[in-house]
Design goal:
mainly beta; 23 strands; 5-stranded parallel beta sheet; about 230 residues
Length: about 230
Amino acid sequence: MTTPPFLQLGDYLTNPADPALADTPYARLAACDLAAWLTQWPDLHAQALKNLARRIHPTARIHPTAIIGEDVIIGAGAHVWEFTTVRGHTLLAPGVSVGFNCEITNTYLGAGTVLGHRIGLNRTLVGDHAHLSADVMAAAIHLTADMTRPDRDTFLRLPDGLYPCRTPRFGALIGDRVQTGSRITLGPGTAIGRDCHIHSHTAIAPTTVVPDHHTITPTDRPTHHARPRRT
């Protein structure tokens, strides 16, 4: 019998350290398979909401013009700036900053992650201490004849073969400490390893998997990061 493919989220993301999430499914995030998490995410998020004492931490700062959905979880010290919408089964971990005029839907943002201005993320998971500059977009569905009813499943091209995500709605998996320039398009269906750098004006094709510690430019295939590591 063929063993089903497994892509462990812990290969990209650090498990949430927030004590408030200890009794929720998010406490087991790193041990989960990507496809299993994507297909069960709305239910897992609903379970988390039931076990939380408060949905939005009192130290979070939310601008009066921001729109926050009723299911969104926001951790301590998080900051949501002007004219931004955060909705769906979304979790902003402690210390997250979401910039001006962003649209964040059905997304996980790890601790200390910073989003610049005009960023659009959907069905996307981002690790701890990532920094996405202005105009980064993660497309969540493939182009189809009827975009309101996506039916083309997403998948990733792993070194040992194709990995089915078992859903037509998946944007990107972005690892811890990924740093990007501006005006970047991802997916649908991309995985970016830890400590990668993505230069401005780069489009990363659907199904692409980038290993840890790589630099991606607009014209080159992913290559090993040649610059000294920042400390």
